[in-house]
Amino acid sequence: MPHTVFIHLMNQDPVMMDVDELPKPSDYLIVGQNPRRRDGKDVPFILGDVTTVYFPIHQISFIELMPSGDDEEVFRPFRDS
Fold this sequence. Notes:
SH3 type barrels; 81 residues; mainly beta; 0% helix; 5 strands
């Protein structure tokens, strides 16, 4: 199942894309499909026809995992009174 992630690159605008699997600690690259800005527009530094991108992990500040509609409800250990 693909995950939608928001990649924060060093010295660039963030990129939203779909990944088949999340990167492991041993990975050097992250591979994504359909790169876009958060508002769905084209990323200025990526050509418009590009559908797959490879980013080196050392150029990424952090990665946000976007929630999907079919995620299970989060377990909360405290009861609402």
